[in-house]
Structures are given as structure tokens and as C-alpha cells.
């Protein structure tokens, strides 16, 4: 690349195959790229080579943390004043939450103005800092955080004393994290003890919450509902994952400003719930498992819905769809993924005729192939035969991609 090209570069990526290619070293490129704002690299390099990149905001490595040397990180910390614009420093390759704590702690201490360290646990690093560096909690500017052991880390310590100790101290870990990160707007949390939930009420700026209860041993529902009453109105995007039933009426009652909702578990409606939901602003919905009542409850009163994914919709037949469309014609729907439903050709045609703005669909019925119906009725609709291909553009999947969060 010429010097003039380098001057104009805003984003730069170094894929792994360049390791064996006859390409110039990183320092030769970065020396002339003073206007870089984003760097992605699958190759290790000395981080102080970025000293001239004063506009750099986003730095992401696609390689294990142990490939970035302590010496390199130390030299970068020395020149941190030249990277005052840096907001995101992330390692996108999954690492063990315990072994990565020291590395993430060093990043946080070196760059206290970061808003994200990616989809890696930052609660254990904060505990490490508090224990070894400072008895007074830090006040960081993090806006996006992941708290709790990753699934891979959990599998490494399951049925061990280490997990038991971690679970007992989890609430204190989260309490410290909340105090240290008061400006969080987007949080992904794997819950290991229900007592930590009350701490979420202190996050006054929180608008995006992805919460996973699959690692929680005790009954958490009553505490969770109490927390929802307090933080629900401020949430715009909510993802809930659990191995138990998830009462969606409680979500609707308390989270009236939701724009996006993902339920990874069985969505149910409580016996005492009203017959209709209260999500007037909902635009995106994903359900992994549902029954007639919960599907009718959620779809009947979401007039602004533009994106819908129904993963296992065996309850959806022509009769149920007809009842839903009487209440909500889905006239704003642009993207629909429906898997394993019981709609007939007539029912699917009814959906296409009602959802007049549909642009992309992935449809799998146990009764027929939808391709011909789509082609005859509206050939402009893009049909995705593979459900997961369309699901790649689903809101939460894009938002929580390791290279973006």
C-alpha cells in the first residue's frame, strides 16, 4: 500500500493467512495510518506500533489472549496517552474466564476510558483489581459488559469445588462490578446465584439485558420478577434464557417499552394473566419454544413487529394464525423465520397476503414446501431454505457477535 492510501484508511484487518504471505510487517503499515479508527487482527504484533494511531477507537484481536505478550501490553500501557480515543479493546477468541482475568484487568487499568472489553467476563478481573491493586472500587466508563463464567469455562469446572466456591461468592462479585461500572447500558450476564439480581436495580442506564438462568441452582423467579418491576420500564431490548418455563406475561406487564424480545426457553402465560400483551413498541421477537396461548398472547398486540423468528412453532396451524391476524395483521412485518409449524398452503398464503411488507422469509412446515407458494404469490420475497442463514441477521445474534459487542 502507498503512503497516500494509508493516510486515508479508517479500518484495517490482518487475517491469519498473512502470517505466511510476503506482506509488510504491521509496524510498517501502522506508521503511516494515523487516521485509523478500527483494527482487527488475527496476528499478534507489538501493540506500541499503534502509537501513531491517535484516532483509534476499536481494537480487536481474533486470537487467544496468551498470544499477546505481557511485555507488549506493558509497552502499550506506557504509550496509552497517545491512544486516548480508544473505546473498545477486545479479544474475540473465547478464553477460560479464570485464566483471562489478569489480562483483562491489565487492559482495564491501562485504558480506564474503555466502553467495552468485548464478550469476555469483566467481573472477575474487577475482583482481581480490587483484591490486588486497589481496595477502593474503580469507577470505569464501561457501557457494554459480560458478567459470569462463559459456557466453556463452566464446563471446565462443573462438579468441582472451584465452581462451588465461585457460586457462593458470585453475588459479591456482581455487587463490586455494579459499583465499578455505574454507566452500563448493555449487559450480558450468566446468573450463578439469585441474590445477585437485586444489584441490577442500581444500573440506571441499562437498556439492553441478556440474562441466562441455566446456571442458577435455586429458585430465582420471585426475585427476578421483583427486579423486573424496578428495571423493566427502562429496558428496550431483553433476552431471557432458562431451562424452566418463562412467564411472558410478567415481562409484558413490567417492560412496556421493549423494542426487542428473545425468549430462549418455553414461553408460557400465567393462569391469572390478561388475554392480551402490552408491548406496543415491540419490533423484534424470537421465541424458541411456545404454545398456542403464549403465541397468541404475544403476537396479537404487536402492531409494529418487523422481525419475527419462531424456532419450534409446532402449535402454529391455520386456525391459530387466523385468530392472530384478526387482532394483528402483521402489516409491518419485513422478516419472518418460522420453523417446524403446521400451517397448510392455505395458511401460509394467508400470512403472505396479510404481511404485505415481507422481504425475507425462511419457512419450514411439516406439511409442504413453501418455495412454490412464495414464487407464485410474491416473487420479490427472498426465500431462505436454510433457517439459520436468515437467523444470522436476527437482532440479538448480530448484537452479541463476539466481534461486535
UniProtKB/TrEMBL annotation:
Record-linked InterPro entries: LRR_dom_sf
Protein name: F-box domain-containing protein
Organism: Araneus ventricosus (Orbweaver spider)
Amino acid at each position: 500500500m502507498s503512503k497516500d492510501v494509508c493516510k486515508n484508511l479508517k479500518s484495517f484487518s490482518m487475517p491469519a493467512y498473512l502470517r505466511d504471505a510476503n506482506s509488510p510487517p504491521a509496524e510498517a503499515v501502522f506508521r503511516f495510518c494515523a487516521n485509523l479508527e478500527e483494527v482487527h487482527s488475527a496476528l499478534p504484533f507489538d501493540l506500541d506500533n499503534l502509537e501513531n494511531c491517535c484516532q483509534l477507537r476499536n481494537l480487536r484481536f481474533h486470537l487467544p489472549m496468551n498470544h499477546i505478550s505481557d511485555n507488549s501490553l506493558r509497552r502499550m500501557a506506557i504509550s496509552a496517552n497517545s491512544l486516548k480515543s480508544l473505546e473498545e479493546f477486545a479479544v474475540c477468541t473465547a478464553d477460560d474466564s479464570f485464566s483471562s482475568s489478569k489480562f483483562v484487568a491489565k487492559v482495564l487499568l491501562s485504558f480506564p476510558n474503555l466502553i467495552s472489553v468485548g464478550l469476555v467476563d469483566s467481573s472477575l478481573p474487577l475482583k482481581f483489581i480490587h483484591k490486588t491493586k486497589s481496595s477502593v472500587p474503580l469507577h470505569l466508563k464501561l457501557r457494554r459488559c459480560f458478567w459470569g463464567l462463559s459456557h466453556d469455562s463452566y464446563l471446565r469446572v462443573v462438579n468441582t469445588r472451584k465452581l462451588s466456591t465461585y457460586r457462593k461468592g458470585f453475588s459479591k462479585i456482581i455487587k463490586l462490578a455494579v459499583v465499578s461500572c455505574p454507566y452500563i447500558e448493555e449487559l450480558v450476564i450468566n446468573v450463578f446465584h439469585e441474590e445477585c439480581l437485586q444489584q441490577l436495580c442500581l444500573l440506571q442506564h441499562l437498556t439492553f439485558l441478556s440474562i441466562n438462568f441455566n446456571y442458577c441452582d435455586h429458585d430465582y423467579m420471585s426475585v427476578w420478577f421483583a427486579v423486573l418491576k424496578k428495571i423493566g420500564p427502562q429496558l428496550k431490548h431483553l433476552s431471557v434464557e432458562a431451562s424452566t418455563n418463562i412467564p411472558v406475561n410478567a415481562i409484558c406487564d413490567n417492560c412496556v417499552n421493549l423494542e426487542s424480545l428473545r425468549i430462549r426457553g418455553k414461553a408460557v402465560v400465567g393462569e391469572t394473566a390478561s388475554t392480551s400483551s402490552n408491548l406496543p413498541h415491540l419490533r423484534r421477537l424470537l421465541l424458541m419454544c411456545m404454545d398456542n396461548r403464549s403465541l397468541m398472547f404475544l403476537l396479537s398486540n404487536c402492531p409494529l413487529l418487523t422481525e419475527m423468528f419462531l424456532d419450534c412453532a409446532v402449535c402454529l396451524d391455520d386456525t391459530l394464525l387466523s385468530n392472530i391476524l384478526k387482532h394483528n395483521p402483521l402489516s409491518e412485518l419485513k422478516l419472518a423465520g418460522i420453523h417446524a409449524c403446521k400451517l397448510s398452503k392455505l395458511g401460509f398464503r394467508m400470512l403472505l397476503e396479510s404481511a404485505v411488507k415481507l422481504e425475507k422469509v425462511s419457512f419450514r412446515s411439516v406439511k409442504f414446501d413453501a418455495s412454490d407458494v412464495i414464487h407464485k404469490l410474491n416473487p420479490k420475497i427472498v426465500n431462505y431454505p436454510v433457517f439459520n442463514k436468515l437467523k444470522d441477521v436476527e437482532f440479538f445474534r448480530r448484537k452479541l457477535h463476539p466481534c461486535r459487542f
